[in-house]
Amino acid sequence: MKPAVLYPLSVAPLALALAAALPLSARADDAKTLDRLIVTATRTPISVDDALAAVEVIDRAEIDASSAHSLPELLRGRAGITLVNQGGLGKLSTLFMRGTESDHTLVLVDGVRIGSPTSGLASLQDIPLALIDHIEIVRGPRSSLYGADAIGGVIQIFTRRGEGQGEQARARIAAGSHGLREASAGIDLRGARGGVGVDMAYQRTDGINACSGFYDPLTWQGAGCFIVPGTHLDRDGYRNRSASLRADFAPADGWQLDAHAFRAEGHNDYDGDYVDNSDIVQQVVAGSARWIPMQDVQISLRLGRNLDDSRNYLGKVFSNRFATWRDNASLQGDIGVAEHQQLSVGFDWLRDAANVSDPWAPFSARRGNRGVFAEYLGQFGAADARQHVQFSLRHDDNDQFGGHTTGTLAWGMTLPAGWRVSASHGTAFKAPTFNELYYPGFSNPLLRPEVARSSELELARSGAGWQVQANAYQTRVRDLIAYDATLGKPGNLDSARIRGLELTGEWQQDDWTARGQLGWLQTRNESAGANHGKTLPRRPGRSARLTLERRLGDVTVGVTGIAEAARWDDVANTLRVGGYGTLDARVAWRFAPGWTLQANVSNALDKRYETSAWYNQPGREYTLSLRWQPADAGR
């Protein structure tokens, strides 16, 4: 196991260095621009190069080219991100960003906050890739803009929508290993002042036998599957039906109205002697209005609701139901106070509600939060020595925890020869989840919010068709919520120190594309007691992702290698999960205008590995897909 992990981690730095060096001889007229716009980092559109944060954009072309069948698979191995999955497609997937907890990353869908107020987690595994246009990832604290939860960072998912005028259609079918069946289709009809659109998707798999260990009821020890030995040795299937609807209209100059809805309904089978299957619903409904009364002034209003509903069964017998709602409202004004200077002010309102139906532990809860924020963005100086400043301040008033103030200060400077340097410091917080506060027998209503402070340094360089970037950071989290064995419930026991380094690079020249990402992470439990100095669980100390693609006429071939070092699966550092490396390969043939046939092989080396103790991951898998998208005809 160990050599297989060390090899990819040692090769990836060399590959990334080559990706940085090769472009020095590239011709500018042959290179492709890597510059993109992002809104999540500042809540206003800004160039990726101008963002004073570690950001990444995954566009639709990269999604189509990948071998991923789910959002967790697409995010796996990226800088600062660790995914823990309990048994393959559709199974519970938790995300750890920059070493923070799995509920320390804020997830948005089209600007609407999603996630369960009971568990604190967003069901990433239930958001189908077929409905996604692009994804923006911002690493580092963003509570000063978004409030609670954004300690590790923010991930915003944008659903598909047409651009320009006319009719835009698309469709895809796929089949693969373990009985995988996928189908999706969409259409947008657009005119001069707006348009409407719809996308639908279906995904089903027979799954794999997820559980690799068993729970012993005599010793109260064993696997996370919590099943009696000899039972549930079967495949754990998954089904997802989803759709998104959208409409936008510009009734007059300076006005823009938008409405959209997304809903995914699924069924999940897994291993357990209390619950072994569930029906899930993920839904987002939102509307927005934007008014530009004059040049350099914009006012926007957004309303949205997220439903996260899980009905759980043992066979056909009802076990429990976790139904949660998140209502969001946001009013924001953006004012250009001078050339290259902008002031944004806003008000956010959030109401979380939960209704848990359980024969043994039912409860209901509700709380509201009101937040006001202000942000200043400025640029000064000549183009070859331009300084960038970002300052944001926010105050949240929570029904349960009172007031909390967070802030971020960032500075950057653009230097000659494509160099850029920046530094930032920010604070963030996370309110306890409803389960941690109210779940009968396993909760603590006296919990305090978790608070964090982070500092970061960045050094980057870019040129014609290439860029490299290094980010070093440190985060300290106080009042970290963890299970307290002396209380038999969660408590504010721990503080933690997290240090990390991320190295990313991208290169495009002629028909070649290379993307590399490396991460080094050091976590330390600084709480008093037996676990002092231990590593935080489920965080590998090293990770790497490398993608190489080449276009040969109408054929594109690509490979992606992902590697992660070993990690501990418990706070006492006694349960070790080994490191691993996987290789995905794909070939796509554009055999006619708008038509693409693609073959993927995932985990081509058939590596046996786990990301969570006692839960298997899929071995080698094959997929064949056919995609029709007339917009690709001219590419």
Secondary structure elements and pairings:
Layout: H1 2-21, E1 37-38, E2 46-47, E3 54-58, H2 60-65, H3 71-75, E4 81-85, E5 93-97, E6 105-109, E7 112-114, E8 132-139, H4 143-146, E9 153-159, E10 166-176, E11 180-190, E12 194-208, E13 215-216, E14 221-222, E15 236-249, E16 255-269, E17 277-294, E18 297-314, E19 317-338, E20 341-357, E21 363-380, E22 387-398, E23 402-414, E24 419-430, H5 434-438, E25 450-463, E26 466-484, E27 489-509, E28 512-525, E29 542-552, E30 555-564, E31 567-568, E32 576-577, E33 580-592, E34 595-602, E35 621-628
Parallel strand pairs: 6-9
Antiparallel strand pairs: 1-2, 3-8, 4-5, 6-7, 8-9, 10-11, 10-35, 11-12, 12-15, 13-14, 15-16, 16-17, 17-18, 18-19, 19-20, 20-21, 21-22, 22-23, 23-24, 24-25, 25-26, 26-27, 27-28, 28-29, 29-30, 30-33, 31-32, 33-34, 34-35
Keyphrases for this structure?
globular; Beta-barrel_TonB; disordered N terminus; transmembrane; 22-stranded antiparallel β-barrel; 5 helices; Plug_dom_sf; mainly beta; 635 residues; 35 strands; 5-stranded mixed β-sheet
